[in-house]
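forwarding from the other thread:

> can someone predict this with adenosine monophosphate?

sure thing
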Amino acid sequence: MAYTYDPQNIFAKILRGEIPNKTVLETEHTLAFHDIYPQAPVHVLVIPKGPYVTYDHFCAEASDAEIVDYARTVARVCDMLGVAEDGWRLISNAGANAIQEVPHLHVHILGGRNLGRMLQPA
Ligand code: AMP
């Protein structure tokens, strides 16, 4: 699979400081910030700073340091926001079938309420 990264996507602009964000946590390789249209009391996006389109792209091509930093940041955000005890959900939409809106890898961390079942019937 060949991945093409569009540097004009909105999260690339956030990373370049061209548009603001509500940062939860920033590390060497990763940025976590609040979703602008939260769908739960906790709705945080975690993105790598590198130019990766999807989760599979990131896992295939990112360095070990980037991957470890990303995974640890997810854990730190869950701890900071206190979602682990009552439960939370991690979602990463990739490509057309998942209706990925922003073509820069992001995982959604959702929590703070009962989230219902994972998928609705098609
Ligand atoms: P997805 O459909 O998985 O690509 O989700 C993209 C997410 O990005 C949506 O939940 C949007 O609300 C969110 N989003 C779009 N623009 C911004 C922004 N400027 N700051 C924070 N979140 C954003």
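The mean pLDDT is 97. thats all i got for now
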